[in-house]
Design a protein that fits this description.
Elements lengths: L4 H7 L16 E8 L8 E7 H21 L9 E4 L8 E5 L6 H9 L6 E7 L5 H10 L2 E5 L2 H13 L11 H8 L5 E9 L2 H9 L12 E8 L5 H14 L5 E8 L7 E8 L1
Parallel strand pairs: 2-4, 4-5, 5-6, 6-7, 8-9
Antiparallel strand pairs: 1-2, 1-3, 7-10, 8-10
Length: 274
């Protein structure tokens, strides 16, 4: 059963480079989310933020993960996950959230110090995105993701991750995410939908302004949270809605977990790669 994160959060140390206050070098903040179950390939996910925007994204991810742990403390099936201040260099996956002042050298230093990392993700705020820098980011990372509002983007990103830790109606795991979203030439975008019932939530997702990109999707991961009595036919309806929006050539996967406290509600989050 998951350890209560309300207590762990109080002991967690977040690294902040205070030299930024003197204008010497940018802020940096990091934490890791690690699976403590006794398994051969225990999951370790590192979050590293650079500059104000990147640090804010990492902070919001930490808050979102802690809140999810609180809500799921009664799930016996949930892997034993802990938040730690250990270095991200020992992680299998590193999420590097950057800002407008983040340099290529900073990312190079981070990734080169992480030989065990097999999935490098760069999170870029919309206002930091430039085509000139995009080529460099794609050369360094396996997945480049552009986000709009940082609090919403961080929460949606962490909600997507929950399906990698929970056995579900339709289960996804780390390798499903990594192999589907790794593309050195594509750029990822987040979408979300919330409503009463998974089919309605999916309809809400495809009606978002940014959902016009669905027709151009090369790869995608969709992750749904549904109420406890959701039937497989309801999920089939949601997948049919998505199938009608996506190109026949798109490589996409769909996962769904039952979520306590979702009575008459459902949510769906996705990353689409263009």
């Amino acid at each position: 059963m998951l350890t209560n994160s309300r207590h762990r959060a109080g002991r967690m140390r977040i690294k902040i480079d205070t030299m930024n206050l003197l204008g010497v070098r940018p802020m940096r903040e990091e934490f890791i989310l690690k699976e403590t179950a006794n398994r051969p390939n225990a999951f370790r996910l590192g979050f590293v933020g650079f500059d104000h925007a990147g640090c804010q994204f990492v902070q919001k991810c930490r808050e979102s993960i802690v809140e999810q742990h609180r809500r799921l403390v009664d799930f016996d099936e949930f892997f034993n996950l802990r938040i730690s201040s250990a270095s991200a260099k020992d992680c299998s996956c590193i999420v590097a959230a950057i800002g407008t002042e983040t340099t290529a050298e900073q990312l190079t230093s981070l990734f080169s110090a992480s030989p065990s990392c097999n999935w490098k993700i760069v999170i870029v705020p919309q206002d930091a995105w430039t085509e000139a820098k995009a080529e460099t980011w794609h050369q360094m990372a396996d997945t480049v993701l552009v986000i709009g509002q940082i609090p919403t983007g961080a929460a949606d990103f962490c909600t997507l991750l929950s399906t990698a830790f929970l056995p579900g109606l339709i289960g996804l795991d780390y390798e499903d995410y990594r192999t589907t979203l790794s593309d050195a030439t594509a750029t990822g975008y987040l979408l979300h939908g919330d409503a009463n019932g998974i089919a309605a939530a999916t309809q809400a997702l495809v009606k978002q302004p940014g959902a016009t990109r669905l027709a151009q999707t090369k790869r995608a991961v969709f992750a749904a949270r549904v109420e406890l009595d959701t039937a497989m036919c309801d999920l089939a309806d949601a997948m049919e809605i998505l199938s009608n929006q996506l190109p026949d050539t798109a490589n996409w996967i769909f996962g769904a977990v039952r979520w306590k406290g979702m009575e008459n509600q459902a949510s769906i989050r996705c990353i689409i790669m263009l």
